[in-house]
Amino acid sequence: MSAPIEHTSPVPSPAVLEPFGGGGGRAVMLGHVHPDADVLGTLLALGLALEGRGWNVAYGGPHPAPDLLAFLPGVDRYRRLDTLGGPLDVVVLTDCPNPLRTEGLIDQARRTAKVIVNIDHHPDNRRYGDVNWIDTSAAATGEMVYELLRALGVPLTPAIATNLFTAIHTDTGSFRYSNVTSRTFTIAAALVGAGARPEVVSESLYERRAPDALRWLGEALTRVEVSEDGRLGWLALPAGVVPERIVESEELVNYPRSVASVRVACLLRERDGTVKVSLRGKGDVDVQKIAAQFGGGGHVNAAGCTVPGPLPEATRQVLAAVRRAVDRSPSS
Fold first, then answer.
1. Are both 163 and 16 inside the same structural domain?
2. Quick one: pLDDT band at residue 332, thresholds 50, 70, 90?
3. Structure pTM?
């Protein structure tokens, strides 16, 4: 394609559909670092749908899928990739606003693929594809992939429905975030009708802890702090204090967020000389703008970034930025 295409409406345009037409081809469903259910569910759903239309599809990214998500249909085919191979007809990225999160695989895609398709709902998406479908009105990228499959006339199998339902479930914070709409529930209902089982998804995500997980969770929660005025809550985890598998499987940032008075919650994880920051907001504090100050991004009520260590200095800087945002908010 000569010039990048951008589409922003909830329903895919002919230009968005074009790369998936014809009688099939070779495709890679490319994930970002440390893939979560948002990205895995959407990539697997779209890939399985394309296979049903005669495509040869590979799945992978810079890191393997976490054990927690082993229940997703087809996830056993998701691999850690050092190279994409080629030539390829299409490479698809979903729920990945920043191409740097592919750790260089996007550069291989540009050399080997005819078309790169970027499907996302993040406002700060960098429009790095040949086709960029960015619908910021969508509560989850899974809503967009659902609309894409409808437009392609793909039947929703139970496997596809389970992947998409899981992606929407996690991307919306279990349907709790403020961007959830009636459209979200309409699509979720259609996926349940196609074979997704909400009780299986919820049990798989939240009720399969390891025997020692609660002990480690308790250790982490002893480190939760709340500011004197009650509006900031945070959890700073030094490297090695809690096993990485526990941090990856628990939404730790939601614990300080659950305090009634907290307006913005922060999880700060020290790892490899840097600190990974997760931000969650309530009300009118835009945490995406906070994350952007440190080179990150996300949504109004959920965002993240990575800042240089050590942990105490990173915590000081991030909390100062959060405090400024809270103090400037209309309801302060």
1. yes
2. low
3. 0.89
